[in-house]
Amino acid sequence: MRATGGELGWLTWPLDQGEKPGWEVTQRTLNGSQFYTYSVCNVGEREQDNWLRTTFIQRRPAASRVFVELQFIVRDCNSFDATSLTCKETFNLFTSESDADVGTTFRKGQFKKVATIAPDEITSKNELRINTETRVVENLSRKGFYLAFQDIGACVALLSTRVYYKTCPATVKSLASFPETVAGGENQALREVSGVCVDNAVSEKLPRIYCTVDGEWVVPVGQCQCKPGYEEVKDACQECQPGFFKAVASGDKCELCPANTQRLSSGVLFCPCMDGFYRAPTDPSTGPCSGLPSAPRDLVATTTQLSAGKLLLTWSPPEDTGGRIDITYSIECQRCEGIVCQPCGEKIRYEPASTGLTDTKVSVSELDAHLNYTFIVEAHSGVSLFASQATPQAYRPPSTSALTTSLHYTDKCQFVHGKWDIHLQMDFIFSFRKRNSNSRQGPEDTYFSSSEQLKPLKTYVDPHTYEDPNVAVLKFATEIHPSHITKQKVIGAGEFGEVYRGILKVPARKEVAVAIKTLKPGYTEKQRQDFLSEASIMGQFSHQNIIRLEGVVTKFKHAMIVTEYMENGALDRYLKDHDGEFPSFQLVGMLRGIAAGMKYLSDMSYVHRDLAARNILVNNTLECKVSDFGLSRVLEDNPEGTYTTSGGKIPIRWTAPEAIAYRKFTSASDVWSFGIVMWEVMAFGERPYWDMSNHEVMKAINEAFRLPAPMDCPSTVYQLMLQCWLQDRSKRPRFGDIVNLLDKLLRSPDSLKTIADFDPRISIRLPSTSGSDGSPFRSVSEWLESIKMSQYSENFTCAGVVTMDHVLQMKNEDIKNIGVRLPGHLKRIAYSILGLKDQTSTLSVFAV
Ligand code: AMP
C-alpha cells in the first residue's frame, strides 16, 4: 500500500457510501512513520454490513491450501461513549472461488465464510495494539479466488494481508533430486514425490519421499547409488580416482586396485591386469591378478618294481606359485630315439592320473625296457589356460633349467643301478593345447547350459493327478516289510504321529540308520492318503541335498514312511544350540547345500512353498537337506501358518509378497524364502523379524523395508539376501545363480571378509530401541533392563560406560571386552545398540 500510495484497487461495498462510508483507505502515523490502512469505524450506527474485497488472486494449480495472515487493530468498544449497544469488536473473513477475474461485479451470496476474526489484544484510547492472525483456506480448486472482509459495526484498521502457500523446497537426498513440491492440504496430508537419481547414479526403484502440509520432507524411502566406476562425494557421484575401482552400483567408496593391476585410468569398473598377470575366468574381477607359476623343481624318478616296468616320479612345487593356491600338475610322456620324439601312446598307465594332480608325485607303469622316455611335468594354475588363451602368440612359458639325462634301462642293469635310466626334462609349465572355445565356461554360461541343456527331463508329478493316491505311492516308493524296521527312540512329533529313529535291515543289504514317520491310530482314509502323499513326492527326488526316501509301509495296519536319518535334526534348532560356533565359511557351505537342493527341485518344476530353516535337516557331517513335502502341510497343519482372507494358511514371514497377496507360488517365491533361510542361518536360528506381528511384517515389507544384516554377516551374503527379497520376482536370482554365486564365495574365502553394515534406510527397526513409551533411555541400567540384560550392569559401570552416549560408541569388540561372552547375549546387546543408532539417525533425517 505504501508503494501504490494506498491504491490497491480493492473493491468496497455498498458502492453508495452515503454519510457514513464503509471501508476506506486511511493514512496513519505510527512511531513516526507513515503507513496506510483500510479502516472502518461506524460504531454508533445500526445494521452495518460493509465489505472490502481484494483483487483476483491467481492460484498455482497444486496449491489447494493457502494461508491468510492479517495484521489489524480493533478499538475497544468501551472507549466510545454511549455506543456500546451496537459496537462490535470482531470482523469476518470470506472467500469466493472463480475461474476468472469478475472485475467490479460483487455478489455477497457467492462468498463463503472462512472465520470470524477477533483481536487477542484490543486497542484502547492511549495504546495501539497490533494483532496478527493466520487462517487457512482449504480445498481450493478453481483458477483463483477473492478474499473479502465484512465489517458489522466494529472499529477496525487492516494493516496488512499476506496470502501464501507452503512448499517443500527442491532438495537432493539419498543421491536423488526431488523437485520443489507444493505442500498438500486436508485431503492429502502427505504428498508422495518420486526423485530422480543424480547424474551417474542409478536405482532399481526410484526413491520416494513425502512432503508434509507444513512443507517439510519426511520419510525418504529407497536410495540411488553411484553406478559402477563412480562414488558418492557430497550428494553427487564422482569418477573413481586412478588407482581405484568400483565394480557394482552401491553406496560403497571406490576400492584400491588390488595387487598386480594397472592404475592408470579414472572411473574404472575394475582394474585390468598388469602385463604378465592374469585372472582366471572364475576369479572375481575385483580381486588381484596372478602371475603364472614357475616350473616344478627337483624332478626325480625312482624305480619301485622294476620287473613290472614301473617307476615313481616326484618333484617339488614351483618356487613361485604366482600367488595362487590352485596349482595342479600334468605329466606328458615322450619316447625319443635320437632326436626324434613322439608321444608314448595309450599303453602307459599313470597312478592316480596324468593330469589334474594336486600331489607332487605320480607312478608310471607299463614301461618297456630298452627305451628312452622323456617325462614332462607341467605346473598349472587357474590362470594358465586363461593366460595362454588370452595371448596365444605373445605368450611364451618362462624357461626353466631343463634336466636332460639319458640312460638306458636294460634287464641286466636294473639291480646294479637300482634306478631307471631315464631321459628327464623339466620344462613347460603350461599347456598350450588350444581348447575348443566351447569348453570354456564363465559362471553365467554354467547356469544357462546346466539349466537349459542339462535340465533333468524329469518333472515332478503331483500325486493328486492320480485318481487313486495309493497307486501313486506304489509308483514312486518302495514297499518295505515292517519286520525289516526296528524303531529305537522317539525323536520328534510329526503332523500325523510320532517320528522315530531306527534301523532298516533289508536282506542282502547293509543296515542303515533311518527316521520312521508313523501315522497315529484312528486316522481317516483322507489322513492316510495325505500322510503318504509326502512319500509319493519325496520318492520322485534323488539329490544329495533332498531328504532321501528309503521306502514306505502301506500294506500293513500301521503305515510308515522311512527316510534317511539326519543325526542333527532340524536346522533352526541345531543352529540355536550352536550359536556363534561356526565361521561364516561353514554357514555359507550349508546354504550352498540347501540352494543346490532347491535348484534341483525348481529344475523339476516343484515349488516347495514352505522353505524355512525348520524344514531343513542336518546330518552328522553338517550336510543340509530339504525336507517336508507333505501336500497338506502348507495349507492345514503348519505351526507358522496364518489364515489368509482366502482361507489358506501361509507362513507369512517366510513367504514372498506376491504369494501372500494372490497365491502366486513359484520358484521365485521359493527364492524369497531361501533369502529368509539365509538370514536364519547367518543369525544362528534367530526368528525372522523377531517379535513383530505378521501384520507389522507385511506392512514393513510393503514399505520396502527388509531385515537388516545379521551380526557379522559377510556383505556379499547379505547382498544376495537382498536380491532374493526384490519386490519384482522376475528380478530375483534363480536357484542356479544362487548356487553359482555361493560356490564362488566358497572358492575365494576372502570374499566373506567384509562384514555388512547396518543400513537404517532399508532396515526394519530393530527390537528394544527405546523405552516402552517410545522415549529415549535415560540411563544405561534402564536400557539394560529393557533388553533383559541387567546382569551386565556392573560390567558396564566398571568399564566406565555410564551414559547412553558411551553405549552408542561401543563396537562389538568392546562388548566382548567388558565381559559379555555368551553369543546370544552379545548379539542381543549389539543389536539393541544398532537399533539405538538407527533411531538417532532416523531422528536426524526427520530433523533436516
Ligand atoms: P516333520 O513332520 O517332517 O516336520 O518331522 C518332525 C520332526 O522330526 C523334525 O522337526 C525333526 O526333528 C524330526 N525328523 C523328521 N525327519 C527326520 C529325519 N529324517 N532325521 C532326523 N530327524 C527327523
From TrEMBL:
UniProt subcellular location: Cell membrane
CC annotations in GO: dendrite; plasma membrane
Eph LBD domain sequence ranges: 1-173
Domain (Fibronectin type-III): residue spans on this chain: 295-403
Enzyme Commission number, as recorded: 2.7.10.1
Membrane-topology descriptor: Single-pass type I membrane protein
Name this protein carries in UniProt: receptor protein-tyrosine kinase
Residue span, SAM domain: 775-839
Protein's UniProt keywords contain Phosphoprotein: yes
TM regions (residue ranges): none
Reactions this protein catalyses: L-tyrosyl-[protein] + ATP = O-phospho-L-tyrosyl-[protein] + ADP + H(+)
GO biological process entries: angiogenesis; axon guidance; cell adhesion
Domain named Protein kinase: residues: 485-746
Domain of life: Eukaryota
Enzyme category, top tier: transferase
Organism: Sander lucioperca (Pike-perch)
Binding site residues for ATP: 517
SUPFAM superfamilies: Fibronectin type III (SSF49265), Galactose-binding domain-like (SSF49785), Growth factor receptor domain (SSF57184), Protein kinase-like (PK-like) (SSF56112), SAM/Pointed domain (SSF47769)
GO molecular function: ATP binding; transmembrane-ephrin receptor activity
SMART domains on file: EPH_lbd, Ephrin_rec_like, FN3, SAM, TyrKc
Keyword line: Angiogenesis, ATP-binding, Cell adhesion, Cell membrane, Glycoprotein, Kinase, Membrane, Nucleotide-binding, Phosphoprotein, Receptor, Repeat, Signal, Transferase, Transmembrane, Transmembrane helix, Tyrosine-protein kinase, Ubl conjugation
Lineage per the UniProt record: Eukaryota, Metazoa, Chordata, Craniata, Vertebrata
Record flagged with keyword Translocase: no
